[in-house]
Amino acid sequence: MPHALLHERLCKLLAIALLATAAPACGGAIPTPTAANAPPPPALTKTDAPPTREAVAIKGSDLVRGRSRLVVLAPIDKVRRHVLNFDRYAEFMPHYSFSRILTLRDDGGRQVMMEVEAIGGLIKMWTKIEMPPPRMEGNLEVHESEFVEGNVDDFKAIWRLRRLNDSHTELSLEVFLEPSLPLPDSLINSENVGGAFDGVIAMRNRIEGRPVESDDDD
Fold first, then answer.
1. For the chain, how big is the Rg over CA atoms in Å?
2. CA distances, 76 to each of 43, 81, 83, 170 (Å)
3. At a CB cut-off of 8 Å and minimum separation 6, what does 166 contact?
4. Cα–Cα distance, 180 to 157 (Å, whole number)
5. According to the 3-state scheme, what is the secondary structure of 197-218?
6. What φ, ψ does residue 47 adopt, rounded to 5°?
């Protein structure tokens, strides 16, 4: 059997397996998508507010980005250090099996290689991204990745930091991963919404030193 055909059939089998095993753990019902050009949501007013679960529309597509926000009990400088410390992501971020800073430029920009796993490691998706220096959008500090290459169709991660006071920072994670596998839009959307939710909680727990199992989906 030609290698290309064998690869295609294997991908279809893995996609079916992913549907069967990942569906119960997906991100749940998709919230009504927010327009891609909508202004940033207002700051969270309660420091103990639960994490949000949001969907952000992608213009011209039925796919959405996942976005979640919460408040971290830490100053913004500490939050920023952890967000940009990609070398440690595999220690605590869900499904990450590898993450490494390849290049660190004088302006603070980074080139990063990441690998995530699914189905107990049967599927490995990798991507190389550029993380330019942050930009300011009002009082939001924005760290937005640029997809360079990988064995996925697209990848996007946007961290937003907002200083609330000397000891509290609002943290937002917006993510989009489009696998090269033949998966339905509904599954991709659910995984991205759930991935943003799980990821921002994992980062908060890491920064605050909380146990990994201290939060759930409630």
1. 17
2. 14, 9, 10, 8
3. 75
4. 18
5. HHHHHHHHHHHHCCCHHHCCCC
6. -65, -20
User: What was the pLDDT predicted at 117?
Assistant: 84
- Give the whole-angstrom CA distance, residue 88 versus residue 75: 20
Which residues in the chain come in under a pLDDT of 70?
1-28, 119-121, 213-218
Give the closest residue to 64 by CA, choosing from 37, 30, 95.
30
Report residue 205 as tokens: 């727990």
Rounded to whole angstroms, how far apart are CA atoms 78 and 84? 10
Residue 57, strand partner residues: 64
Structure tokens at 62: 């039925």
Spatial strand order of the sheet with 123-131 comes to 96-104, 110-118, 123-131, 146-150
pLDDT value of residue 215:
44
Structural tokens at position 155: 């990848």
Alpha-carbon torsion angle 125, 151, 200, 211, nearest 10: 20
